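Write out the bound-state structure for N6-Methyladenosine 5'-triphosphate.
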Amino acid sequence: MAAVTGGRIVPTVTPKLFTLVIPHINGKLLLGKKLRGFGQGYFNGFGGKVEAGETVEACARRELEEEACIQSTSMQHRGMLTFCFHDNPQPWQVHVFCVAAFRGEPGVTDEMEPLWFSPDSIPFDQMWADDRYWMPLFLAGKTFEGTFHFQDTHTLVEHTLREVDLLQLPAGPHQPTAVIVD
Ligand SMILES: CNc1ncnc2c1ncn2[C@@H]1O[C@H](COP(=O)(O)OP(=O)(O)OP(=O)(O)O)[C@@H](O)[C@H]1O
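---
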């Protein structure tokens, strides 16, 4: 993809889309211990890559069901996080959802082991380095946007974070585009 700026053609890289879904009910958070794949061993919300033809919201619902065995009955889009990795030209755009109610009983899957945490026992030392920055806004019911730069995948070197009034979801079903790196 390329953008035209002041008569010059500037190559841009379309971010890869992800979801991150966190039930927050009666003051407690449901997080999952990742049992395999990217971020194995970390506690995180539930989520994953948005598939071709899928909306971001549909991905959030699907991942919650696949990874925690529950179905959201009340979900709110609360954050947009951009992760930039020094060794990867394609940034990740992660849409964070808060689940206020669900059907079913959280259960362990081959990917995640769900556990409830009170706000003062969130295991930040076993979580992604960005989580400790935006989680207070999430817990306070705020809507937020942030960009986090990682070196060597796990080392956070720089970030920006701000509250926003409104977040925009990408319109319609996801249509991945080829990454062009200049
Ligand atoms: C760098 N700092 C980060 N901080 C907080 N959360 C992060 C994160 N980096 C990735 N995440 C989340 O981790 C999940 C990975 O998803 P991931 O398992 O790779 O996707 P998916 O389930 O589609 O893949 P498989 O089908 O298992 O290969 C996904 O929710 C994504 O938002």
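---
The first strand starts at residue 2 and ends at 5.
Residues 56-68 form the longest helix (13 residues).
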